[in-house]
Amino acid sequence: MLKALEKFPAEEYALPFFKEHGYVRKLCPRCKTFFWTLNPEQETCGEARAEGCATYTFIGNPPTKRSFTLREMREAFLSFFEKHGHTRIKPYPVVARWRDDIYLTHASIIDFQPYVTEGIAPPPANPLVIVQPCIRLVDITNTGPTFGKYLTIFEMGGHHAFNYPDKEVYWKDQTVRYHHIFATEELGIKPEEITYKEEVWSGGGNAGPCLECVIRGLEAATLVFMQYKVVGNQFIKLPIRTVDTGYGIERYAWLSQGAPSAFHTIYGEVLDRIFEMAGITNLDTNLLAKVAKTSALVSLEKAASLMEARRKIAKILDVEAEMLDKILSPIENAFAVADHTKCLSFILAEGVVPSNIQEGYLARLLFRRIYRLLRLLGITDRLYDIFDMQIRYWSQDYPHLKEMRDEIMEMLHVEEEKFKETISRGGSLVKRITEELKSRGFKKIPVETLTELYDSHGLPPEIVKEMVEAEGLAVEVPENFYSLVAERHMQTRKATEEVEHEKWIEDEVAGLPATEELYYKDQYMTSFEAKVLKTFKDKYVVLDKTCFYPEGGGQPADTGFLMFDGGKVEVVNVQKVGKVIVHEVKGENLPKAGSLIKGFIDWDRRYALMKSHTATHIVNAAARRVLGQHVWQFGTQKGVESSRLDISHYRRLTREEVQKIELLANEAVFRNIPVEISWMPRTEAENLYGFRLYQGGAVPGKEIRVVKIGDWEVEACAGTHVRNTGEIGFIKIIHSERIQDGVERLEYSVGIQALKAVQRVEGLLWRVSEILNSPLEKLDKT
User: Fold this and answer.
1) What is the CATH number of domain 607-768?
2) Distance, CA of 92 to CA of 107 (rounded, Å)
């Protein structure tokens, strides 16, 4: 066990490959990092970074045997590893709905954490290769000024191998050899051009030593040897050692072209068009190339001033810093517009609705930063043109963008309306806060106030700055403001429908065997016999088996009673603690451990909940058909009399839309569609049905329970369901409301309760008819 983030010992990096090829290990005097090089005269690590270890030497001087486009580099990477025994895997979504700890996919290994890396589920192939679109909004501030070293959206090439105690695939030495062969033989880079830096990597709850591959100043790949689980401040050895590599596909393409920026390589004609829209003409490409070589000196991660970095670069280039800033600012803003609009297109294409919560917050942050950049460039009127270009450009490789184009455009339109409304309303709020601060003697608005105004009211700091300075207060917006805000929201734990338990109850059931779940073997079972394993605190009973469904997935726990020699107790609550099901009972005496009981569930209640749960799946699918593919389930609660479903949507639902959803849902009921339930290996289910499976959130385990309603809906779900949709009888949506920005709630009843809901409304109509003395059919004319 190691303390987290300590340096690993030197022997972790002393690979046979380095010895065979004559690499020497040295210490960089600037960044204090050890590195391996074929050049004994090399003094620094060779990476272009803020510490000034090096500058880029590939600009206008590519080290590869030929130039590669981004698409060509992606294919070169995938094909190379396919030739070397890896199975090509399709990229996962950029919205990580299979996980409950993060919102966005920021590395290829995210696709396989924690289930594969911790041995819960097998990998889809071993070894495998993937090029995964990734999103890292913590780099948002650095995106333009670093000329492409940092991007908010990028493609990570990962070749992954999962080494089990009884099966070694390959480990450190072979990983480095693969990189060497790819870089030297496939791309034609000279071996002496490649430096390997020793680092410690940690992410997604795992950690290990890593080597960063530096070529002519650019860190082109990271080779991570994941072998620890991070628990608190400790590194604990994992049984599975994972090769986790991250090749920057854009960076390798940039290296191969030697272009003035990575944006030129990535966006090509799209960037040219943005320049044209913004009136950025007669570019001094020689100056751009000179700036690009030193652009790694820019790092705004620690609130450093961009102007401070400008002065450093200006001094090196022997030009005036102010003049350089005037030339570069619009160019860098255009770079950021290209990057951010692509990033937001990918996020919206996966059904994220901009809002104030979860991944919707991050989408809104991106939109408002884009709008601010367009405002600076004077081209807010070209917002939709730029997104349209991006969708057309990237749909060649990611066709789902084209499929979602109309919905993306509609969401952008709504978001622009909301943003303008926010700015319009914000003036009075900012004025009130400014007056309060001035009365307390403040000369400058605190950063905390800027953050609060952005987080709670959606007011960007630049807009606040304009308003506040007009009122006589100074404002200093940190250069890394958006990165700080994004970081606060990237790791926020998602709301789940799983029930959390206090530690004392976990301690009580520790060591007990898993409870046999009879409600899965036969969902129509109403009674059963079982053995008592333990009772505690005079009201909790643990059995070896049960058909009482425990609370979970928005479905309430079953109720009923237990009968035994000498007594009867009422079951009032049921919870699943780990793999043990605990029955909370009410009664004078509890059955003794080791005795036999007979359990009876309240069948009428359970059956009503089964119908409600299946109806939830049906209504959700109907809403998606009516409103669009951006509809995702945000939360549910099933009940006997009524249930509710929260869905993502960018507008208030109209009465006509609600009626269409209700009509479609009932058509599915009347079709009497069979409801099929099966347990499937996680990877197989994902390959067969896609990530729509995770409507209800992340589902743990090697196998997942898949509920399939014919061609209507399929979802990973742990709840109880009817055999066919006809058993539901009838669905009536009784209410809809917006519970928060971007989330609509549908309340509905099923079966006899739905009929009662209709009769209640009918009764009101009859009452109105009597009061107005008008027949029902003529009320609309009265």
Assistant:
1) 3.30.980.10
2) 10
pLDDT of residue 141: 87
Average pLDDT over residues 239-261: 97
Question: Which residue type occupies 553?
Answer: G
Q: Spelled out in words, what is the top-level CATH class assigned to the domain 507-601? A: mainly beta
What is the number of H-type helices and E-type strands within the chain? 22, 25
pTM for the structure as a whole = 0.91
* Residue 221 identity (one-letter amino acid): A
The three-point CA angle 128-122-179 to 5° equals: 25
Q: What value does the CA radius of gyration of the chain take, rounded to a whole number of Å?
A: 30
Quote the CA–CA distance of 239 and 228 in Å, as a whole number: 9
Measured from the Cβ of residue 319, the count of other Cβ atoms closer than 10 Å reads 16
For strand 527-536 and strand 516-517, is the pairing parallel, antiparallel, or unpaired?
A: unpaired
CATH of domain 2-262: 3.30.930.10
Domain boundaries defined on the chain: 2-262, 297-490, 507-601, 607-768
Q: Determine the Cα angle at 443 with ends 439 and 448, to 5°.
A: 90
Distance, in Å, from the CA atom of 689 to the CA atom of 684, rounded to the nearest integer, reads 9
Residue 3 binned pLDDT confidence (cut-offs 50, 70, 90): low
> CA of 362: how far to CAs of 97, 343, 410, 450, 492, in Å?
15, 11, 18, 17, 11
State the pLDDT at residue 375. 94
- Return phi, psi of residue 647, to 5°: -130, 155
